[in-house]
């Protein structure tokens, strides 16, 4: 079944095409483009029009452009529109309008992607689920995710993020949500916002996506701003967490080496569920995801079973054992790969997980490798240094730091906890044996631009990764 015919795309965008074509996918990157995809020539660091010829050579069904690029024939399979991003947005709206899928939108300072992946995994047992393979949650990521949605989808899970005021509302309206979920509101993007309360107001703009559908808001009940989010919800609010206000409420949360076991109650009934990842933040996201599943009338028992099989993706809290000696399978490093992104809330949660973890050997250490948290504005230095007094630090043996902002933490820590400091992750990645040793449990985390994945890869290559 094709995703887009030329006739459907022309009707959606008001564009023109000299020839008929059929596209089976939508791509914005020639490196990952598959034959039969529509190539969208967005302008970012480079102008996508410069890559149209390459896309067509690789088998693109057509290219969405605002002009005919040099060297491309006038009768090539091009969908010509006044503006490429506006055309992509039109495709996204048309894709949303033609499907009967229940669309779930997720926003929050922390936990959007892991919650999206939980929902993808749980709802897959109930029907056809559409969700982005990456963290596509910005002004081009949301319309791209929608434009890729097959018409026969039963569910769609859409991340909606922001860096500046005013970003969430139009994206939520474009997605026309049946359920809108808010995970965490915390200090992030403070370069663009004056306070956490202002961030909460922007996050609550996701509820504008419910105006047409009359859908449900699902909100973390344990936040300082939960009451304000509740006031903003237009059609009532389902709350989850530890608070007595929560309709989905934790009774008990037990963290183990292998995961987190939870007992919760809803409407007078108690139920158990497990998350195959240690950390109360994962448990919180999972409880909210179960509340979402209930709102879209999925079978809750099947969702709980599916949740028990879910594991965090790479860079999002994934845990793996790095075996250093085939003859000694217990000689290795326990690695928490949480390198994809960071803000104060997520770093605090990761430190808690590390502090609660037992090293695989008696002489092993708890080692944190932390990179700068970006977009914190004038509060950045103090927020980084403040982790020296975080409750988890007492149990952590050594801290390596990357970046000028994390130098503030490094300087605030007692010398007994000092590992290495470097300006870039590439510098530390050159000497992984200086960071960890056999028997350690180690956690790596930092903002995406800090490229902490380089360090994770270097540690992984020390041995054979064993799931």
List the helices and strands and how they pair.
Blueprint (H helix, E strand, L loop, with lengths): L3 E2 H8 L8 E2 L1 E3 L9 E4 L11 H6 L4 E4 L12 E3 L3 H15 L3 E6 L4 H12 L5 E3 L9 H7 L7 E5 L8 H8 L3 E4 L13 H9 L11 E5 L5 H7 L4 E5 L6 E9 L2 E8 L2 E7 L4 H16 L4 H8 L10 E6 L8 E6 L6 H13 L9 E6 L8 H6 L12 E5 L3 H7 L5 E5 L2 H5 L11 E5 L7 H8 L3 E3 L1
EC number: 6.3.2.10
Catalytic activity: D-alanyl-D-alanine + UDP-N-acetyl-alpha-D-muramoyl-L-alanyl-gamma-D-glutamyl-meso-2,6-diaminopimelate + ATP = UDP-N-acetyl-alpha-D-muramoyl-L-alanyl-gamma-D-glutamyl-meso-2,6-diaminopimeloyl-D-alanyl-D-alanine + ADP + phosphate + H(+)
Pfam family, one: Mur_ligase
Give an account of the 3D structure.
This protein is an alpha/beta fold. The chain folds into 3 domains: 4-83, Udp-n-acetylmuramoylalanyl-d-glutamate--2,6- Diaminopimelate Ligase, Chain: A, domain 1, CATH 3.40.1390; 99-307, Mur-like, catalytic domain (UDP-N-acetylmuramoyl-L-alanine:D-glutamate ligase); 318-466, Mur ligase, C-terminal domain (Protein-Tyrosine Phosphatase, Chain A, Alpha-Beta Complex). It has helices spanning 6-13, 52-57, 84-98, 112-123, 141-147, 168-175, 196-204, 226-232, 280-295, 300-307, 344-356, 380-385, 406-412, 425-429, 453-460; strands at 4-5, 22-23, 25-27, 37-40, 62-65, 78-80, 102-107, 129-131, 155-159, 179-182, 216-220, 237-241, 248-256, 259-266, 269-275, 318-323, 332-337, 366-371, 398-402, 418-422, 441-445, 464-466. Helix 3 (84-98) packs across helix 5, helix 4 (112-123) crosses helix 10 (300-307) and helix 9 (280-295) packs antiparallel against helix 10 (300-307). The mean pLDDT is 92.
């Amino acid at each position: 079944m094709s995703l887009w015919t030329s006739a459907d795309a022309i009707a959606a965008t008001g564009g023109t095409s000299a020839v008929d074509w059929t596209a089976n996918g939508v791509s914005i990157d020639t490196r990952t483009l598959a034959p039969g995809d529509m190539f969208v020539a967005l302008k970012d660091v480079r102008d996508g029009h410069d890559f149209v010829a390459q896309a067509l050579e690789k088998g693109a069904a057509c290219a969405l452009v605002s002009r005919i690029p040099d060297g491309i024939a006038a009768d090539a399979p091009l969908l010509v529109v006044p503006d490429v991003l506006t055309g992509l947005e039109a495709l996204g709206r048309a894709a949303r309008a033609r499907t009967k899928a229940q669309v779930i939108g997720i926003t929050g300072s922390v936990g959007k992607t892991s919650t999206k992946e939980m929902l993808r995994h749980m709802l897959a047992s109930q029907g056809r689920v559409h969700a982005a393979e990456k963290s596509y949650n910005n002004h081009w990521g949301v319309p791209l995710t929608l434009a890729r949605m097959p018409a026969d989808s039963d569910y769609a899970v859409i991340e909606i993020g922001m860096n500046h005021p005013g970003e969430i509302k139009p994206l939520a309206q474009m997605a026309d949500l049946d359920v809108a979920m808010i995970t965490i509101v915390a200090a992030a993007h403070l370069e663009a916002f004056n306070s956490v309360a202002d961030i909460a107001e922007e996050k609550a703009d996701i509820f504008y996506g419910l105006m047409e559908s009359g859908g449900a808001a699902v909100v973390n009940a344990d936040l300082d701003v939960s009451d304000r989010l509740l006031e903003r919800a237009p059609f009532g609010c389902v709350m989850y967490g530890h608070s007595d206000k929560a309709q989905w409420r934790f009774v008990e949360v037990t963290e183990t080496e292998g995961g987190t076991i939870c007992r919760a109650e809803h409407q007078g009934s108690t139920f158990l569920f497990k998350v195959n990842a240690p950390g109360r933040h994962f448990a919180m996201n999972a409880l909210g995801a179960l509340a979402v599943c209930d709102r879209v009338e999925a079978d809750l028992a099947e969702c709980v079973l599916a949740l028990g099989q879910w594991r965090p993706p790479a860079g999002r809290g994934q845990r793996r054992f790095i075996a250093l000696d085939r003859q000694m399978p217990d000689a290795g490093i326990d690695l928490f790969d949480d390198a994809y992104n960071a803000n104060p809330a997520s770093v605090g949660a990761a430190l808690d997980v590390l502090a609660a973890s037992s090293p695989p050997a008696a002489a092993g250490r708890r080692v944190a490798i932390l990179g700068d948290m970006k977009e914190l504005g004038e509060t950045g230095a103090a927020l980084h240094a403040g982790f020296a007094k975080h409750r988890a630090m007492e149990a952590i043996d050594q801290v390596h730091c990357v970046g000028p902002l994390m130098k503030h933490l490094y300087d605030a820590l007692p010398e007994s906890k000092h590992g290495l400091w470097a300006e870039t992750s590439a510098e530390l990645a050159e000497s992984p044996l200086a960071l960890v040793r056999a028997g350690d449990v180690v956690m790596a985390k930092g903002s995406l631009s800090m490229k902490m994945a380089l360090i994770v890869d270097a540690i992984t290559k020390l041995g054979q990764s064993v799931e």
